[in-house]
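Q: How do we represent a protein-ligand complex in a form that can be generated token by token?
A: Start from the inputs.
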Amino acid sequence: MSVDVEVKTFPLFINGKWESSSSRETFDVINPATGELVAKVAKGTKEDVDKAVQAASAAFENTAWREMKPKDRAKVLYAISHQIITHAEELVYLEVISSGGTLRRISSNDILQMADLFQTLAKFTLEYPFSENLPSPPFPGPAHNFIWREPIGVCAAITPWNMPMLIATWKIAPALAMGNTIVIKPASFTPLTTLKLAEIISEVVPPGVINVVTGSGTEVGEPLATHPKVEKIAFTGSTEIGRKIMTLAAGTVKNTTLELGGKSPNILLEDADLSIALPGSLFGVFLHSGQLCESGTRLFVPDKLHDQVVEGLVKLTSTLKLGNPLLEGTDIGPVISKQQRDTVLSYIEAGIEEGATVVCGGKEVAVPGCEGGYFIEPTIFINVKNDMKIAQEEIFGPVLTVIRYSEIEEVIEMANDTIYGLAAGVWTKDVNKAYDVARKLRAGVVWINDWHMLRNDAPFGGYKQSGIGREMGKHSLDAYTQLKHVHTSMVPELHKRNWYQLLFSETE
Ligand code: NAD
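Then emit the structure tokens for the protein with nicotinamide-adenine-dinucleotide bound:
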């Protein structure tokens, strides 16, 4: 079945309106399930980035936006939430046909999480300590001290293709909640929903508050990460490009937050309830064809349970249906591109060469009706050692590596033996054991008897090379403010000022 879509051209979105790119060129957006062209999108340039940043900068100068009262800002955030729900059908459709995520997941999870994020941050904004009084010091004399939290200014967001609209909101929502303005560069595989979001959000915020420049990492991302008027950069993507962003941002010392890759360990303890742990572990790794940063890609299984667990995993995996993500019955869609498909297949080959054994999957698949799409069978490797390439590098595809262990100390050591630290999980019936393991795991989120459970009121982000900073939750608001200390002396006599004698030796 081919997807019947009208091929539309999307310009840039700058200063509240659609704008052509200075290059006058476009690039293609392809449906990864069919290989068909779904849209043409403006190829942005350095000049377009400058135009968008100037618009965002002018919008930030508008004190009506920057200094809006929390209760009015909360109303704006609720209005954005309402816009998302009003336009949900179109957003969901555009996201499915460009990212390959299933309609079932995006319509029942992502879109609701997005709408809820704006509502959650609206509530936090009402309670946010924008101004705090410090107690007056007892000596040498009274003073009044405030701590003010102020917006940073023009923020840049650079986002990946895997969950493009959800991840865009993780940056847009806290940036706007704190009175900043934003320029977003979405990934070139999936720019459509970010453009649509900017259009619908701009109906309830002043022009220039939200802008989108589409195009490549080098032609749009780099000028954004180096623009002198951009004061903060929020990046989600691979650790490799994250390192580059840090270097680019260093030139103008930008406030930088990074959400990067992962190779998350998932530990089964001997007393785990396998009736939940097995489907849970597959949910942890095969959702969205394994293209989620916090996927549980390394499954650690105790020797005693190994054969039983592998048999159960293979059986359950055989029930998963690959197909067109627009169909309700599809469990797993395609990977994002031909290039990504080839990368995943080359990792599978590397695993076999290193001595690991494929017990299910391992090949690309032709899905009837989606012959032009990029599908890979959900794949499980056994006989994996933790130092193999397939256990250390982020594959970003439907590949699970099963690693045996005998002692708890050994598994904790292997779990932490990675450059990443985004997520981790443990399955056990003993809650005390679970907390003990959770404490020892070096990761930004630890799931106990669960996976992928993120909350809009809880922070998300990585330890080690999985990133810097946190998104979602109250903590994300701190990442979009800066602190100002304001001191007022209340001491009327000059000679009683404690600084006087520090410089002046002569007394009056
Ligand atoms: P990527 O790093 O290739 O690209 C991310 C973004 O950076 C894209 O918009 C890309 O165009 C841009 N970019 C590329 N080169 C650039 C440059 N030189 N300067 C500026 N921008 C540049 O990542 P991807 O392939 O789009 O996404 C997959 C990666 O994202 C995986 O590593 C995954 O783990 C990670 N990810 C992390 C999280 C998280 O929250 N930690 C969430 C989702 C995805």
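The first strand starts at residue 8 and ends at 10. The first helix runs from residue 46 to 61.
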